[in-house]
From TrEMBL:
Classification via SMART domains: HTH_ARAC
Name by which UniProt lists this protein: Helix-turn-helix domain-containing protein
Annotated Pfam families: HTH_18
Domain HTH araC/xylS-type intervals: 211-309
Alphabetized UniProt keyword annotations: DNA-binding, Transcription, Transcription regulation
Species the sequence originates in: Massilia solisilvae
Organism domain of life: Bacteria
Length: 313
C-alpha cells in the first residue's frame, strides 16, 4: 500500500473524512469502517480529525466543503441499491484529494467509469456483476488498494483492517494501537493479503483444484508442504498443478507458496514482537540465511531492516 501521498494529509488541521453511507447502518462493512475512525477521532481530538456521515442524497445537495477523504460505503449484499445520482456523486467525490469506495461502493464507482485503469479491491462476490467494466478497472483479489488518490476496500471484515491502516498512516502506530485495544484487534491484515474466496470467485467452479491447492498452502505456512504433496492432496499430478498455476496465476506453485510465506513473515515482523528467528521458523524457514536472502529478494530489504522500520514508526 502506497502511503507516501496519503500520509501528507496528517498535516491537515483538522483532517476531514466523509463517509457516504449508502447501505444499512448495522452492516459489517459499515460498522467495520466507521467505528475505528470514530475511535481515532476521539483519541486525537476534533482539532485533528473530524469524521462526518452523509447519505448520498444529502451529500450531493450539500454545499461544497473541503473534505480530504471521501468514501462511498455499502455492504456487498446491497449492490442492487446503487444511488440514482451517481454522476453527481462521482463529481463531488473527485473534488476531494483522496476518495473511493468500500464494498458495493467499489462496484458502483467502477460502473460509473470513475475507476478506469485503477487497481481496485472488489468484493469477490461481486465479480460476476462486474461484467464488462472488468475491462476498464483492474480488479484485484486483495483486501484493499491505494492507487494514487483512489482508495478501495472489499468491505466486510476487511473494512476494519482498512480503517486501522488509514489510522496508522495518518496518525501513527500509537493511535492505531489505542484503537486496536478498544476493538480487541490483535493483528491488522495488510493490503497484499487476498480475500479468502477471491480465487474461487475468479476461477469459479472450473478450477476447484487450483483453489484447493492455494487453500492447502495457506493452511500450512509453518510446516510447508512439497509441490508433490500438494498435488497429491488436491488429487492431480504435479504437472497438472504447475500448468494451472502458470495459466491462471502466472507463476509456479513453489514460487507462489514462497511469496505467501514471506508476506506472512513481513506481517509478523511488523505486527508482533516475535524475534526474527521465531518469525522465520513460524513461516517455514529453518535456515536464517535462507529466510533473509529470500525476504530481501522479494521485498528489497532484510527482515532486520523491516523490523527496524517498525521500531522507527
Amino acid at each position: 500500500m502506497q502511503h507516501a501521498d496519503l500520509s501528507r494529509l496528517a498535516q491537515e488541521r483538522p483532517l476531514r473524512v466523509l463517509l457516504l453511507n449508502a447501505g444499512a447502518p448495522d452492516a459489517l462493512t459499515w460498522s467495520g469502517l466507521v467505528q475505528p475512525l470514530r475511535l481515532a477521532a476521539k483519541s486525537v481530538g476534533p482539532e485533528r480529525l473530524h469524521v462526518d456521515i452523509r447519505s448520498p442524497d444529502k451529500f450531493t445537495a450539500d454545499a461544497a466543503r473541503p473534505w480530504h477523504i471521501v468514501l462511498l460505503v455499502a455492504d456487498e449484499s446491497e449492490s442492487g441499491l446503487k444511488p440514482a445520482n451517481m454522476r453527481a456523486l462521482v463529481q463531488r467525490c473527485r473534488a476531494a484529494p483522496f476518495w473511493g469506495g468500500v464494498g458495493a461502493g467499489v462496484l458502483w464507482l467502477a460502473d460509473a467509469g470513475a475507476l478506469d485503469g485503477v487497481r481496485a479491491a472488489l468484493p469477490w462476490s461481486l465479480y460476476a456483476e462486474a461484467g464488462d467494466i472488468a475491462d476498464q478497472a483492474v480488479f484485484t483479489p486483495h483486501l484493499y488498494e491505494v492507487d494514487g488518490a483512489k482508495l478501495t476496500c472489499c468491505g466486510g471484515a476487511a473494512s476494519i483492517d482498512f480503517a486501522l491502516t488509514l489510522v496508522e498512516t495518518l496518525f501513527g502506530s500509537s493511535v492505531q494501537a489505542q484503537v486496536k485495544e478498544v476493538l480487541c484487534v490483535d493483528r491488522v491484515r495488510g493490503p497484499e493479503e487476498r480475500q479468502r474466496v477471491a480465487l474461487q470467485a475468479r476461477f469459479g467452479a472450473l478450477q476447484p483444484k487450483l483453489t484447493e491447492a492455494v487453500t492447502l498452502m495457506e493452511a500450512n505456512i509453518e510446516e510447508p508442504l512439497s509441490t508433490d504433496e500438494i498435488a497429491q492432496l488436491a488429487g492431480i499430478s504435479r504437472r497438472q498443478l504447475e500448468r494451472l498455476f502458470k495459466q491462471y496465476l502466472g507463476t509456479l506453485p513453489s514460487r507462489y507458496y514462497l511469496e505467501l510465506r514471506l508476506k506472512r513473515a513481513r506481517q509478523l515482523l511488523l505486527d508482533t514482537n516475535h524475534s526474527i528467528v521465531q518469525v522465520g521458523l513460524m513461516c517455514g524457514f529453518s535456515s536464517g540465511s535462507h529466510f533473509s536472502t529470500a525476504f530481501g529478494a522479494l521485498f528489497g530489504n532484510t527482515p532486520r531492516e523491516e523490523r527496524q522500520r517498525k521500531l522507527a514508526q
